[in-house]
Amino acid sequence: MTNIQKVRDVMMSNFTKVDGIMKVSDSLNMMREKKINAVLVEPRDENDVYGILTLKDIARKVIGQNRKLHEAHVYEIMSKPVLSINADMPIPFAARFLTNFNVSYAMVIENNEVTGMVSLNGMVDRWID
């Protein structure tokens, strides 16, 4: 029987969470330092949900609109809510799930905890045929 790759096999477990009040310039500097393309945005309280900030958000909603990086806050340009995906989901279904919603990233959930992030690029990069 073939071993089916799961989301946990390709997820980024060294993901970063930020506060929505953070300036986009600070989050971009941090993303550059860590060489990452997306960060999760923490919920404000128990009634809130996670958001996500990607380089694409910064390009479209700040640079593309000629706004200043140091004047914009993460909460103004993040995407919310962020999709979540179970760590046990097989990669082919996970890839289909993300593409059905036209997104590149999802947070990974295991035992009701956020344990990582997964991207379409990561799925392709780590795919074993």
Relevant terms:
3-stranded mixed beta sheet; alpha/beta; 6 helices; 129 residues; CBS-domain; globular; single chain; 6 strands
What do these coordinates show?
There is one protein chain. The chain is an alpha/beta fold. It has a single domain (7-126), classed as CBS-domain (Roll). It is 35% helix and 20% strand. The protein contains six helices and six strands; from the N terminus they run H-E-H-E-E-H-H-E-H-E-E-H. It has helices at 7-10, 24-34, 55-63, 74-77, 91-100, 120-126; strands at 17-18, 38-41, 51-54, 84-86, 105-110, 113-119. The strands form two sheets. It has a three-stranded mixed sheet. Strands 4-5-6 form a three-stranded mixed sheet. The longest helix is centred in the N-terminal third of the chain and has 11 residues, at 24-34. The two termini are 14 Å apart. The mean pLDDT is 94.
Please describe the biggest sheet, giving its number of strands, its sense, and whether it closes into a barrel. 3 strands, mixed
What's the SSE pattern? HEHEEHHEHEEH
Query: Gyration radius, to the nearest Å?
Result: 15 Å
CATH class: Alpha Beta
How much helix, percentage-wise, in residues? 25-40%
How many structural domains can be distinguished in the coordinates? 1
CATH fold-level label: CBS-domain
Would you identify the CATH H-level superfamily? CBS-domain
Strand order of the largest sheet: 1-2-3
Number of helices: 6
Average pLDDT for all residues: 94
Report the end-to-end length measured between terminal Cα atoms.
14 Å
Number of strands: 6
Q: Outline, from the CA principal axes?
A: globular
Structural class: alpha/beta
Unreliable spans are: none
CATH architectural arrangement: Roll
Percentage beta strand: 15-25%
